[in-house]
Each structure stands twice: as C-alpha cells, then as structure tokens.
Write a structure and sequence with these properties.
Layout: H1 8-17, E1 22-26, H2 27-41, E2 48-52, H3 59-67, E3 71-74, H4 77-85, E4 93-95, H5 102-111, E5 114-117, H6 121-129, E6 135-139, H7 164-176, E7 181-185, H8 195-216, E8 222-224, H9 243-257, E9 265-268, H10 272-275, E10 279-290, E11 294-298, H11 307-311, E12 317-319, E13 329-334, E14 343-350, E15 358-362, E16 382-386, E17 392-396, H12 401-405
Parallel strand pairs: 1-16, 2-3, 2-9, 3-4, 4-5, 5-6, 6-7, 7-8, 8-9, 11-13
Antiparallel strand pairs: 1-10, 10-11, 10-15, 12-15, 13-14, 16-17
Helix pairs in contact: 2-9, 4-5, 8-9
Length: 412
C-alpha cells in the first residue's frame, strides 16, 4: 500500500480551495509505476498494455498514460470517444463490449480500432451492419475449465465470450469471408493476488493459439491475456505484485509454445495496477454517533467509493495528524446515503476521532470515482492531480445541483 504523500497542513490548504470530498492522484507515482511495468514486460514479444478505461475515465490521467505508450481498452461508445478525444487512434484502441449496439461497432470501424467480439452471433451482426474489418478478435470463455475469483466470478457463470468450439467455428467463418488478421482475448480474473494464476491464464491462451493454428490454419497476430493484476489494499504489503516475476513466468511459457515464424504479440488490459494505489479519497468527519456501535459520519459516501459496499472490499483509512496515535477505538466509518451498507469500514480500529478530522481513504485510483452515481441526489466529487512539481491541479470539477437537474424535464 502506498503512503499518502501530503501532510495535514498541506491538505488543509488544498481544502480551502477545493472542499472535501475529493479524489487526489499522484502523477509522479503513476509515471514511475508505469515505467517499471513497461520495463518488466518488455521481455515479452510485442508487449502492449491497453489501459482499462472503465477503471478510471479521466482525460488528464488517460493523456499521461498515452504519453507513456499505453493504449485504451474500451467497453462503450463514450469510452471510445474519450480515447479519441485524448488523441488515441487506430489499433491503439481495443473495444471489448458486450450486447454491443451498431453505433459502437460503427465507431470502431471509423477509428480503425481493434474489435473484440463477445459472441459468435456478432459476426453476422457486424457484417450486416458495418462490414467485417481486416482485423478481428474473439473473446474466449473457458467455462468450467478454469476458476475465476470472488470479484469477477467463475467463467462458467459469466456472460462473456465464446466457447472453445465457437472459437474454431468463428475463425473459420471470418477467414472464409476475407478477414486477414486475427487476435484472441480472455479476461477471467480481477485483482488476482497469485502470480501462478496469471501465468496459468497465459499458458492456457498459448496452448489454445497453437490448437487454433492446427485446426484452422490461422496464425494469431496477437493474444490478449487480459488484466487482473492485483494490488495491495493493506499497509505493510507491497503496493503492487512483482511485475518482473509475472513477466518472467509468462515469457517462460511463451518460449514453450512459440518458435520460428509463429511469434504473436502479447497484450494485456491492466487498469487497477496502473492507477489504483496512487490515489486517495479525502473526506472530513461531520458527525460522531454513539448508539449500539460508534459511528464516524463523513462528507463522502458510497457514491464516491462504492467498492466496500459492493464487494466488502477493504480500503485502509488514515486519520491525518494522528498517524502515530494508537488505534484503540473501534468505529464504523459511514457516509450520509440512505442505505445501511453505506460504510467505508466496519469495526475498524482507529485513533480517537473528532468532528472535523480529515480522513484519507487509500487506493481509490481505480474503480473509485469511476463507479460513482447520483442515487439519493448525491453529487459526484472533484478529482485533483498532485503534479510532478508539487502543485495541485483540478482535473474534474465537483458536480453541482444544476448538473443534477440538467437532464430532468419538469411538467409545465
């Protein structure tokens, strides 16, 4: 877990200009992490990471990642447009949607982005409405052959992807229709903490690529082994898994299956490990409540960070200015949403908390702001960037009540 880079005094100055709650990202940490990530995986032929836009769709951050050579993994039309607006183009963008409408396929064709089909029926749908592209990719669902994890579920229960038999049929159909270039994709784990599971996914895909070559004659141009590299949400643990260990394991499997002319590029679509550990939700304590339990009421709520309520996920909490005080008081840390699961922490041991204390909730740089919502009339918070020179820049303003009412139609 990454240490919060600012002091209480520095944060109080920021709050004077940008009231809580807000998410703040550390540009230096993100840049250093991406460079280490790229260096580790550079041993793998043709390696490229397509950042999962769903993890953090902020154009400032996406522009930094583009500058560092990352592509964009998109799953909707607005995400495609966002990638286009920051200057990504062509095969720097990969589209992996499901229940896909015509408009999304049409935008992919316009941009020249990689289309990753989710179902065999989409071949005919795409051909009829937009025409088949020169390059096409299929998403593979291994079903009962593999186990997922708590966050993403088991593949056999997932709505995504082709069966193995459908893959072979799909490649043959597209080859017969003149498609020249092919890719293969899967995504079966999320926030995976075991290196061997990530390597096993790569091995599974490499073995399948060889079988595709044998049964269809198609040599895959690339294999996207998905994302899912986990990060630490707890103190005294490494911020990220060992990129070097993962890369060495994947490279070892790669050399077992691919020799000579067959040398497919290897792609990933990591999001969480790229930005997740390098952001924090900053919130101020509004009220303390003492009934059957002791509650800390914050000005942030699950509309700002819903992972604890949705997954029971652990996010560490620091009380600014009390970092060295003993954590001997047990609290539920809550927001003001009219839902009883609106809690950032349950039975969390913390220093003694007082009204107006500033709490920092760690590791909110992926699936944090991105999963925000307006239920209960809650307004989404601002996003700030702690820049390389130590200054702070607003990279998304907080929503206003006017924003909330902007799409409503009132009867006259």
């Amino acid at each position: 877990m990454e240490k919060f880079p600012l002091s209480k005094q520095e944060v109080e100055k920021i709050i004077d200009k940008y009231p809580t709650p807000f998410h703040i990202y550390d540009e230096n940490m993100i840049r250093e992490n991406v460079m280490r990530f790229k260096k580790a995986f550079s041993i793998i032929p043709g390696f490229k990471n397509y950042f999962a836009v769903k993890a953090n769709p902020n154009p400032f951050l996406l522009s930094i990642l583009k500058e560092l050579g990352l592509g964009a993994d998109c799953s909707s039309l607005p995400e495609l447009v966002l990638a286009e607006k920051i200057g990504l183009k062509g095969e720097e963008i990969m589209m992996s949607s499901n229940d896909t409408p015509v408009e999304e396929f049409a935008k992919c064709k316009e941009l020249g982005s990689i289309i990753n089909l989710d179902d065999i029926s989409h071949i005919e749908f795409l051909e009829k409405n937009c025409g088949l592209p020169e390059l096409i990719c299929f998403r593979y669902n291994p079903g009962p052959a593999r186990q997922g994890n708590v966050i993403i579920g088991n593949p056999a229960d997932a709505k995504y992807g082709f069966t193995k038999e459908q893959l072979f049929e799909g490649y043959k159909i597209c080859k017969s229709k003149g498609v020249k270039r092919f890719g293969l994709h899967t995504m079966i784990v999320s926030n995976e903490q075991k290196v061997e599971n990530l390597i096993e996914t790569a091995r599974m895909m490499f073995e399948l690529a060889v079988e595709i070559k044998e049964k269809t004659g198609i040599e895959l141009e690339f294999i996207n082994i998905g994302g899912g590299i986990g990060t630490s949400y707890k103190p005294d643990e490494p911020t990220t898994m060992s990129y070097e260990e993962i890369a060495r394991g994947i490279k070892k499997e790669y050399t077992k299956f691919f020799t000579g002319a067959l040398q497919p590029k290897i792609f990933m679509e990591c999001g969480r490990t790229i930005t997740g550990p390098f952001a924090w939700l900053v919130t101020r304590v509004r009220h303390l409540k003492h009934i059957y339990k002791d509650y800390v009421g914050c000005d942030a709520c699950m509309a700002n960070l819903m992972r604890p309520a949705l997954y029971g996920a652990y996010h560490h909490i620091t009380v600014l200015g009390k970092e060295n005080q003993p954590c001997i008081f047990k609290y539920d840390v809550t927001g003001s949403l009219c839902e009883n699961n609106d809690k950032f922490a349950i039975d969390r041991m913390l220093p003694k908390i007082e009204v107006a204390d500033i709490l920092v909730i760690h590791n909110t740089g992926a699936h944090g702001y991105a999963m925000g919502f307006n239920y209960n009339g809650k307004l989404r918070s601002a996003e700030l960037l702690l820049k390389k020179d130590g200054s702070v820049e607003l990279i998304r303003r907080a929503e206003t009540i006017d924003d909330y009412f902007a799409t409503m139609i009132f009867k006259k």
